[in-house]
# Entry
Amino acid sequence: MTAYRGICFRRPSAGLNGLLAGYGALAVAELAAAAVRPEAGPVTAVGAAAVDRTPALVKDWAIRTFGESDKLVLLVGIVAVLAALAVVLGLLALRHRRAGAAGVLLFGVVGAVAATARPDSDSLADGAPSLAGALAGAALLYWLTGRLTRPARVQAPEEGWDRRGFLIAASAAAVASTGVGVAGRALGGSRARDAVSSRVAVRLPRPASPAAPVPGGAQLRVPGVSRFVTPNKDFYRVDTALVVPKVDATRWRLRIHGRGVRRPLTLSFQDLLDGELIERDITLACVSNEVGGPYVGNARWIGARLADVLAEAGVKPPSEGGRADQLVARSVDGMTLGSPVEDVMDGRDALLAIGMNGEPLPFDHGFPVRMVVPGLYGYVSACKWIEDIELTTFDAYDPYWVKHAWAREAPVKTQSRIDTPQPFARPAAGAVMVAGVAWAQSRGIDRVEVRVDDGRWQQADLAAENTIDTWRQWSFPWKATPGSHTLTVRATDRTGTTQSEKRTRTTPDGASGWHSVVVTVD
# Structure
């Protein structure tokens, strides 16, 4: 019976060994990644590799299902899988000690390959954190398994192993791993603190061309309608960065080079601050936004006019004989976005933005510098944490999202949304204000219409227009009668184009269709 109890206790302890070895491996890897760069950590590297290899439809589903928590869900899933595998390796080590340790080393190799294969990796050193963590984890598993199988000498010799010695060793391993992890966080935090300090030190200068005041009638006084200017904390975030880059503005550089660049440039953040800045209100929209979805927002941006920076480098648009028709922007995390050169130089207010709603860009939204191009979906224009601009052609290079089945060019489609009443709301019979927003950046909104059930289309009242690059609020006074009703909205832009009724998916170039909500009037 005592031998049976010993076996039953050793198996869970072997699983615990695996978890402790995995914990120690990740702690050491975290410390090593702090010395190399945070993005080289194994969880981040494997997660990024998973994102890169995920089909576009699956990514779209993840964004639709989990929203801005999609990255957290992925990371939690990776840690859960690693924990399960660690338990398996712990049990394997109980029977084959060296095989269990070898399994840990194998996962270290996988992490190292994932880290060095990342687009933003330019050194084999990125594989060091995964390998260092794996070596530590393998050694720890080998040692703990040895303690688990070590014969008892004093206490409970009939059970065949030293339970007390094992518990002491396991506790020591847990404490040591925690200490290493805390040290790694502290070291990594010092780099982040430099970036935070550089942002705090930024004083946005008065722009040479300030934005006009927002018209008083642009914001409707209707409860439930979106705020005309989206606060930074509420502005949508859709990207592939599992770890938000913390870039020190004092060390940041932007390189401009490539086809048709007669004068290659390397700009510092101070160069942009010292140059001519403009301020503009611009609405951004994500191509992953479903009809009626939340991934659209409006902000006041300040930055350098991108066309002027390109002209300084000697770049000409194709219409003027320029040799490049695609601008490829690269971020510090390796993301590549491709924009039509003609569009960013056609007179619209395309920006290298450094400020958002009166403050330096938040880190989540691209500090120190990002691109903002009105009229184009973000995946072909809104490069955050930008560090490189290469002029090339669409035939010569496919950026990240094009390789994942999205369209090369993606102008924002004319869209409208009902903000209030919400779906399945139960308003009282009588006067009900239906309201929302519509957008068609670079074209402007000309008309918004609302339909109740299968009735005729009725024109809504438009709020004051700020610019053609911002969304426009609208309202429709509805005399609601009891029962279930479907409210539908559509918009027409200044070119006379009315948004299509046909529902399409977000891939390959943005969703289309009319937004509708069902309500029950009491």
Notes: The first helix runs from residue 2 to 36.
